[in-house]
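step: validate -> pass
step: tokenize input -> pass
step: predict -> running
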Amino acid sequence: CRTLRPFLENPGPSFRTAGDTETVVHLYEEYGDAGVHLLRGMFAYALWDSGRRRLVLARDRLGIKPLYWAPTREGLLFGSEPKALLAWGGLSRTCDPEKLLDYLVQGYVGGERSAWADIRRLPPGSTLSWRPGGHPAIQGYWDLPTGGLREVGETEALHAELREWIDRAVSDRLIAEVPLGAFLSGGIDSSAVVESMSRALPDPVIACSVGFREKSHDELDHARATAARLGAVHHAEVLEPVPRLAFDTLPWFFDEPLA
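step: predict -> pass
step: emit ->
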């Protein structure tokens, strides 16, 4: 959002805070619902337009941030977790039978309908608008582009282009008001991110890894080797199985069935 501030301020409103939230408000004031097209990265927000008595919900392009909603007789509920909506007390705690089948087949619940019969999920790359007494209207603002496919060219040129895109994506996320770190699994994607961070930051990257006693699931050796090569400050933890945690605690955080 910081990259949008000069664009909105000249000419435009003056900012009173340094946070991202105010940028979203000014973006809506200038461009309405279309302002969401200018946002990049992961986000989910709810904006109440008091003048027009209108609620706008929006979710990032890939749906990294969750956003749930439910219509009721009294209005419209929304939140980042189903448990926030269920806390209202007026929603059914019944499981959607079709979504239970989805879970048994694919190991998770996807799509616009959640595992809860009365709760829905805002699709990735979509907005929802609603006025009191009216019906919610969902509109997609982005979809995965498929028209840019091309033949594979020179390998070195592709490597350079891929690194440029990774560097650009990582650089956009290095602007933060809190200390930065990275998950390093030892795989290709997380290693590429940490490598890009190590070239962009003046201090060593803080990298965190999780390992397992079962060698079939453990990648700590790869993570340690990558961290050492990149000069990262590496923190590693080995998770031990705790049956009570798995059956009593984790489902509360999952909110929906997850294999």
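step: describe -> The chain has a mean pLDDT of 89.
step: cleanup -> pass
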